[in-house]
């Protein structure tokens, strides 16, 4: 019987994850890479290159339409209240580019974006510093480095 109790406790611990900062930690991972947010509405396609320590990678950049949430309404403020909202297109685009070996130190990102006609509208290089993320919250371990770049409506590029 004692072996069953010990086995049950071990299984329960494994199911709940590690305990960090006095609370259970989940087993959620984090993609290692770069987020790209494009507010310049004329952009249709693009390419990205990420370089560090003499190594460069050119992962595919799949841009998707961006949206924002509007019109949130709720029937009350209790936990059982019903709320609703709508997603409205912004005209911008976004992508997440996996970069498996991305280090948590400065990297150079070259971003080339084109309009519907194939004309280059952005061709810029920027240095960004990926930071380790904690997808399960503080004290539950890191999931890998991530960084982001934003292309403003005027075509300027900045670190997010």
Mean pLDDT, all residues: 87
Task: Tell me the overall shape.
Answer: flat
- Structural class based on helices, strands and sheet pairing: mainly beta
Give the SSE order as H and E letters.
HEEEEEEEEEEEE
Largest pleated sheet: 6 strands, mixed
Describe it.
There is one protein chain. The chain has 160 residues and is mainly β. 9% of the residues lie in helices and 49% in strands.
Helices and strands in order:
Elements: H1 2-16, E1 19-20, E2 23-24, E3 33-38, E4 45-52, E5 55-57, E6 64-74, E7 83-98, E8 107-114, E9 120-128, E10 131-133, E11 144-151, E12 157-159
Parallel strand pairs: 3-11
Antiparallel strand pairs: 1-2, 3-7, 4-5, 4-8, 6-7, 8-9, 10-11, 11-12
């Amino acid at each position: 019987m004692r072996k069953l109790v010990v086995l049950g406790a071990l299984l329960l611990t494994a199911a709940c994850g590690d305990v960090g900062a006095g609370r259970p930690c989940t087993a959620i991972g984090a993609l290692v890479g770069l987020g790209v947010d494009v507010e310049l509405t004329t952009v249709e396609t693009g390419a990205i290159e990420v370089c560090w320590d003499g190594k460069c990678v050119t992962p595919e950049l799949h841009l998707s339409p961006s949206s924002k949430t509007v019109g949130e309404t709720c029937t009350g403020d209790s936990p059982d209240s019903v709320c609703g909202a709508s997603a409205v297109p912004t005209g911008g685009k976004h992508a997440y580019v996996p970069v498996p070996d991305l280090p948590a130190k400065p990297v150079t990102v070259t971003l080339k974006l084109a309009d519907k006609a194939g004309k280059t509208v952005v061709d810029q290089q920027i240095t960004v510093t990926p930071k380790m993320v904690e997808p399960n919250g503080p004290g539950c371990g890191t999931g890998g480095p991530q960084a982001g770049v934003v292309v403003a409506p005027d075509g300027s590029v900045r670190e997010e």
